[in-house]
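Subject: sequence -> structure tokens, single chain

Hey, anyone have a minute? Need the predicted structure for the following. Not urgent.
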Amino acid sequence: MRIDAYTHFFPKKFFDKLNEVAGDYKDMGKRIRSLPALFDIDVRKKIVDGHKDYQQILSYPQPPIEKFAKSPADIDEFCKIINDGFVELCAKEKDHFPGWVAQVSLAARDAGVAEAERALKNGALGVQIYTNVAGKPLDRPEALLGRTYKIKWLESDHAFYITINDVEKDGRRRPFEVFINSKNMEAYAWALALTRMISAVFRRGGDVSFVVDELKAIFDPRGGQWMGGRYVPSLLAAIGEVIERHMVEIGFLSARDLRPTPIAPATLQLPREGAPANFCPRCGEASFVKLEGCDSCLSCGYSKCG
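Reply:
Had a minute. Here:
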């Protein structure tokens, strides 16, 4: 006996329900309505009878229930109609269809688990789940809290906007995803790549603060610029500082976790915003400035005047 373990079919009650709630469903819906073997049991039995020693295990085809159901309650109802229809059909036509696969949905998770258990008790050989739940990832809430930060970079005519969205887990708010946008199309590819990579790291969870350290350690060989009274070695480092500031503001990092920032005396005239830097010959930090007439380092204290 040859058993085809993955064949699609609509139980009659569900097909009638589908036409009732989504009769105008286009594309896949039009194709389904043109193939009687998907919903007419007599046509399907003729196909099975056309092959010697042949049987089929039935399962639900397209479209995903999430595409036309309006609520979790609707999804649960539709799944029950499908599964009960398979129970009835396979009991009546067991010589043609000796088994069936249950349909459940992750869009109604609690109900889906209960329905899977019910279907297996009713004889289902397995459970089928569509992994793409209406295009929405299961681990992402419908709405997230977030903030957007602006970075002006000397070499770009357009500003960069860094949006960081957070989730709350176990009473603690943590970054979940990042979006980097700018009208500067020269930055499009790397900004998109960085957006996806950082977001992937954030969504994995754990201690993701290392992302900040890695970004802040990047030096641009073309030079960085002064921002907020201190030197930032690259645009990527500036993005790292934005993420770090955000982590502190939401309580994911404490202020004491930050590396100390050299503080300039009040009388010191710092370079203008966006200006290039001078590097200290001793420690290599970009904090070499003229202080009281002497070239001095704000990081290590080195002075050319001794």
